[in-house]
Here is the input.
Amino acid sequence: MKRIMIFSFLIGIHFLNCDPEKLFRDAPVITEMKVYPDRVNPFDTVYAEVEATNPEEGLLSYQWSVSPSAGSFADPVDGSEIRWIAPTTGGDYSIKIIVYNDYKSTEQKKIVTVIESAAPLVRILSPQDGEYLVQWSPTEISLRAIHNNGINRLFFYINDVFQAQQSGGSSGEYVFNFTPDSSLLGKTEIKIEAIANFVTATGADSIMVNIEAVLPSVGR
Here is the structure.
C-alpha cells in the first residue's frame, strides 16, 4: 500500500511539472525527407527537403543540423528546404531535421557520404625497416591503414611480386603472414598497398628486411 501511495505521488508530481496543454497535443508528422545526392565530393552541394503535416493548428518551424559538424549551410536555413556545402574531409555525415509545431517536435536523419580523394595512409608497424629475419621462420607483418571513407582492400607484395590480399575492416589494424624461403635470402622488400572506398588513389608503405639463411647443424 505504501509503495502504491509513493508511486501515485511521483505520477502526480510529473503531471504538475508538465504543461497540461502540451501533454495531450500531437507532434508534427514527417511524411518524407529527401537528401540528394547522397554521395558527393568535397565542396559539392547537397539538397535536402522535408515534407511534414501538422495535426494541430498553426505553422511549422524547421531546424537543420549536420553531425559531425562540418561543411556549411547556404541561406536560408530555417525552411523546409536547405542546401549543404560538403566539407573537404571525407566520411559519413548525418543531416538531421527537427520539425516543430507550437507544442511538440519530431525529427529524422539521412546519411550523406563525402568522398575524399586523398590516398589512404599506410604504415608497416612490424617488422622494422632493416630488421633481420630468418629463413623458414613464420613472420607476421602488422600494419595500420586508414582513410576517412574506410579501406576497401589491401595488397601484399614481396620484391614487387603479389603475395596476398584482404578486405578492409573498421579497426584500421591488419596482419599478413608469410614464411621467407631460400629465394628471398639477402635484402628483401616488403610492400603493402591500400585502396579506399569510392576512390582509386592508392596508399602504400614499404620496408627492406634482411633474410638470413638457416645454417645446417653439424653433427658430432
Q: What stands out?
A: The longest strand covers residues 186-196. The helical segments are 2-17, 20-23. The CA atoms of residues 191 and 206 lie 4 Å apart.
